[in-house]
Amino acid sequence: QAYIVYMGSLPRGEYLASAHHVSLLQEVIDASSVEDSLIRSYKRSFNGFAAKITDTEAKKLASMKGVISVFPSRTLQLLTTRSWEFMGFNDTIKTNPAVESDVIVGVIDSGIWPETPSFNDDGLGPAPKKWKGACRGGKNFTCNNKIIGARFYSSLDEARDRDGHGTHTSSTAAGNKVKNASFFGLANGTARGGVPSSRIAAYRVCSSIGCSSESILAAFDDAIADQVDVITISIGPTYATNFFEDPIAIGSFHAMTKGILTSNSAGNSGPGVGTVSSVAPWMLSVAASTTDRLFFDTVVLGNGKTLVGKSINSFNLNGKKVPIVYGEDASNKKCSKDYNGQCLEGCMDSDKVKGKILLCDVYDDSSAPSLAGSLGAIVYSNINVSFVVPLPQLALDAANYNVVKSYYTTSAKEAEATILKSETFKDSNAPVVADFSSRGPNPITPDILKPDVSAPGVEILAAYCPLASPSSDWSDTRHVNYSILSGTSMACPHAAGVAAYIKSVHPHWSPAAIKSAIMTTARPMSSTRNPQAEFAYGSGHINPVEAINPGLVYEASNADYISMLCGLGYNVSQIRQISGDNSSCQGENKTSPKDLNYPAMTALVSPSKSFKITFRRKVTNVGIATSTYKPKVFSSSPKFNITVVPGSLSFKSLNDSKSFNVTVVGGGLPNNEAMLSAALVWYDGTHSVRSPIVVHTFDKDYV
């Protein structure tokens, strides 16, 4: 079993990391086995190693001086022509390509396909002077002035993307402008990233089976030392873990100490509460929401009835009506009768489905119809997202699916239909958080709101690997340079692109300041359309145009996060290992998570008990030198009262800071799954600095 041994920051002065790691291993295993046991030392940006050891040996290492945590290496999972315009960030917005070209976006993912037009280097000069990385992409991999660095890890032998995921996220964050990009004519337009003139450094950590913890930590170790400016990582576990047993939380902490903000996908385990897996306060956790362009498909039945469903179907039957066959009637009798209607792989008789449209009761295995040799498929699904399909196929909701099933039953098995090519429509309800997007509250620190923001993550067109199947179906032999994907994986690089844009305008801003700007300028979202409200969308939907001019920011330094860790119970020895300095947990150096200088204010309270909560915050002026801000509280609930002291904040210069307190008083929330929310807005006549206020009873043991 591979384990990660995390040892905090690199010690100052002369330190031979690899030798120290070997000596630790020698104390717990046979000396002759150390060389085979050690997988990798982390020694460029933080201290630790990965090794193959037993559970007993792991426990021995965990008890040793200088070791903060020992945890098994897990396999984590990989979790646009319209999205940027939807956010108001169109080509008419003034940008500075010369300045943008100094920004380096590090992408930790499944690699990159360098030949894609989104990554050509026309008009770009040499890599920025600060760049300390390398192009080690493997055989036949060539970097250029756009992709300035590439690395791969563990058993992988190249940085080239074979999956399409890493190419998609890279181009979303930092891809060039490419005109007439589309998916077989669908979603035609100009594809581009948030900062088209920025550089990309690709770190491939994922294979076809997932992304290992030891590779993720190795990529962070390199990316930080290579001096990227922003990291985007659309990878995550299926559930949240303690900060220092989470490779992304560990890596992003050390990135933060070097001035690098990490954007991370919130997870695809929604819509249940407490499912968010990206929970560390020093990184930006991003939920996925819709844009105003959604895909739909249409089936026309033999009786003339037309039904609308969901899919990204590039095929066209040209109006030809073909027979429909229900899965149960096309069974090969090899599977349980209970499952025959579901069209599961291996359960269909190819002779019975050939040239026909399969009617399937569940949308669990989209590849089953194509593997059975059918011409098309109509499936039942309650998922309100369209996915690329490998043949003429669409998903219908329960009402429409039952219409087809009734038609089939009453047509003496002479039912027929034709499936049209997909189209798009303008969705005036957007943005709405996707059902799959993981929700809060934060199961590790309930007093820190997660996710932080929402960004476009539904049906996003971006660059793709031409070797990969666009529908993830091995029988789909189409090859594309641009494809359409959905997930918080797609939302994450949108937020990273905004962070890179802010970095290009404000190169000296801290990660916390950039994160604050993104959160406090986010557009408010509708709690009516998103019933879980802030637990679904955080501070709101990212707003790139406003984010470069937030007026005020909530700063937080390494010391602030260390104080919060003290408040969570980490001891002085652990704290000093993590921070690499002489930090202590005495007095003011110990802060509850509620009082971290976070742009959102959240508190867990006991059910059915009255409460009085005070949030202590400090804002720094980055707007107009001489300015006065006044607070306004927006709340629709009479169940609690909110006061802000002082009643105004007056600034005399830029970078001046002022403190304030927000007190929330309430008579008690009714049960173990209740929340109330409001918003505080500081306004100076020009800037609106908005922070959500959330009080809830979702105890972390309950979620």
UniProtKB/TrEMBL annotation:
Keyword field: Hydrolase, Protease, Secreted, Serine protease, Signal
Pfam families: fn3_6, Inhibitor_I9, Peptidase_S8
An example Gene Ontology molecular-function term: serine-type endopeptidase activity
Gene Ontology biological process terms, A to Z: proteolysis
One GO cellular component term: extracellular region
Chain ranges of the Inhibitor I9 domain: 3-78
Chain ranges of the Peptidase S8/S53 domain: 101-540
Domain Subtilisin-like protease fibronectin type-III: 595-695
Superkingdom assignment: Eukaryota
InterPro entries: Peptidase_S8/S53_dom (IPR000209), Peptidase_S8/S53_dom_sf (IPR036852), Peptidase_S8_Ser-AS (IPR023828), Peptidase_S8_subtilisin-rel (IPR015500), Peptidases_S8_3 (IPR034197), S8pro/Inhibitor_I9 (IPR010259), S8pro/Inhibitor_I9_sf (IPR037045), SBT (IPR045051)
Active site per the UniProt annotation: 109 (charge relay system), 165 (charge relay system), 489 (charge relay system)
Family per similarity comment: Belongs to the peptidase S8 family.
Full protein name: Peptidase_S8 domain-containing protein/Inhibitor_I9 domain-containing protein
